[in-house]
Amino acid sequence: MITVDRLTKTYGGFTAVDDVSFACQPGRVTGFLGPNGAGKTTTMRVMVGLTPATHGQVTIGGLKYHDIPNPGRHVGSLLDASAQHAGRTGREILTLGAQTMGLPKDRVDEMLALVGLTETEAKRRLRNYSLGMRQRLGIAHALLGDPAVLILDEPANGLDPAGIRWMRGLLKGYADRGGTVLLSSHLLHEVEQIADEMILIGHGRIVAQGDRNTLLSNAEGATTTLVTSLDNQTFSEALTKAGYVVDPVGEGLRVHATSEQVGRAALEAGAVLTDLRSGGAGLEDLFLELTSTTQRDAVPGGPVHEHMPALPPMPPVDSPTAPTGGPHA
Amino acid sequence: MSTASMVPPATLDVASTPRTPFVRLVQVEWRKMVDTRSGFWLLTITAGLLALVMALIVLVVGLNDFQVDARGISQGMTIPVSLLLPVFAILIVTSEWSQRTALTSFTLEPHRSRVVLAKLVAVTTLAVCTIAVAFVLGALTNVLCAAVTGNPLEWNLDGSELVWLVIQQMLFFAMGFAFGMLLLNTPGAIAIYYVIALMLPLMVWGTLYAIFDWAKDVLPWVDLGFAMAPLSTGADPLGRPVDVEAVTYVQTAFTALVWVGVPVALGMWRILRAEVK
Ligand SMILES: Nc1ncnc2c1ncn2[C@@H]1O[C@H](COP(=O)(O)OP(=O)(O)OP(=O)(O)O)[C@@H](O)[C@H]1O
Ligand SMILES: [Mg+2]
């Protein structure tokens, strides 16, 4: 439904989006993942014609956005929930949208009810809205025209846990009814739960794409296990002999292998384990590995686990060693 | 989501949604103009100033038993109109950028020139209404003055001058719109508008015109108000009655092109290509 075809966007000498191609299918939720500044928002802005592409193009349902008549009825977008007149009430903002799209007035009430904004809240001016209320209003605005395609930039931003769960259900339901949903995020676990398909972007380039299992199978090399035994020294030697890479971490060891492999190695070596657990989600590591090359990302200490050492410097994303996803399924 | 079939189509069914009618865009722009506090206060202040000018004229005339004619009144009433209407014209464009609502406006109507045109139609309608109100109030002032002083009621207004006065107001107003489009920034556009439309003519051009002979030849090619003075007031900028010559029309067209046509064209070019953030 959404087809991004060799899209490039440069600002002066800086390439924000670099030869990006992917497609979002109807009936599926597509997650668009990448760290800060990866080019997610820029790509989405090109989709709805707010940013001109330098090369390449985006079509939605075979049409360029510019050629869709009354596009709000077909494509709902939320790019920046704060980009509304601070002096207008929530209700007025939705009313203007509904009027432009030629929708009946009661559609506004429906949408306000849907996103859980009360009558009094709807009468408040946007400048007095909380972050989450703005986000809810933005989602309501995107849904106004009952579109077949939803393009949402960090829709969970500022939502409370109940709101996030509600949104997950909403987007799933939308896709189940045949809608196309593209949502961006930098939080993997947020997207992992709803996306049927994930696009990973780093430094303006797609570094991997596919469903969860495809990505995980690519990520196998990144899986690690944290283990502690009564005699780490001996067990470490046994593991190394068995061909696993082992790093001492805190009180225990980090092994580049699955928990099962480590468990079996312990059985063979007769080692007594006091702790055995997964060394972080494989996807999470994959995500970080694929997308982090800047100083900004190299957080000292390790963000995921207390056992984790400082991340070693990663190869640049667009270096030849960086794994790339297969063709789109 | 019109389909209930198992395999959702990968194309959009756009046959059911004709493109947004222009009239609807104008209605939306009209609504945007008056649904905020700034819009409301600007309207209120304009109305208040019109009433104030009217009251002042009646008061002065009443106290001094001073003869005022319809021509004088019409020129008095243009002051609030020419001061505040262009601010409306500037705001309707620039507030989309300062408040970042252009994101929504251009997403719902990606043909940006239609949105800009709808704005122009909406704000011009407002300008015409305001000028009509000013005209009615001016006529009322004339009647009141005659009643207060007991002088005979006089309608010495030249029809052609009145028409040109309205055209001049509309051109200045369009100039505000054009500066808004060009700068996409409220304070900047308002400042430049006031400098070019009010301060320069009053403080610089007026002085030059009074002192130097060359200025009398040059300034009507530079300033819209100086170019149009013979048409809208029947006098040169110093108040000496003059006849309208063919060159006056050329000067009017030329200054209108420079101060309205060129900025509109550049502004449109900018808006059509701008990245909306
Ligand atoms: N107008 C511009 N001029 C120069 N650089 C720009 C411009 N717009 C965006 N960029 C740059 O393009 C890159 C991509 O930005 P983008 O907003 O798409 O990132 P993102 O993936 O949405 O990040 P985040 O997760 O932080 O929202 C950034 O480095 C940004 O600074
Ligand atoms: Mg972003």
From TrEMBL, chain A:
Residue ranges of domain ABC transporter in the record: 2-228
Keyword rRNA processing: no
Source superkingdom: Bacteria
InterPro entries: AAA+_ATPase, ABC_transporter-like_ATP-bd, P-loop_NTPase
Example GO molecular function: ATP binding
Region (Disordered): 297-329
Keyword Ribosomal protein among record annotations: no
Keywords from the UniProt entry: ATP-binding, Nucleotide-binding, Transport
Family: Belongs to the ABC transporter superfamily.
Protein name in UniProt: ABC transporter ATP-binding protein
Automatic annotation (TrEMBL), chain B:
Keyword Membrane included in the entry's annotation: yes
Top-rank taxon: Bacteria
UniProt KW keywords: Membrane, Transmembrane, Transmembrane helix
Entry's transmembrane regions: 40-61, 73-94, 115-142, 162-184, 191-212, 249-272
Transmembrane keyword on record: yes
Name of the protein in question: ABC transporter permease
Organism: Nocardioides vastitatis
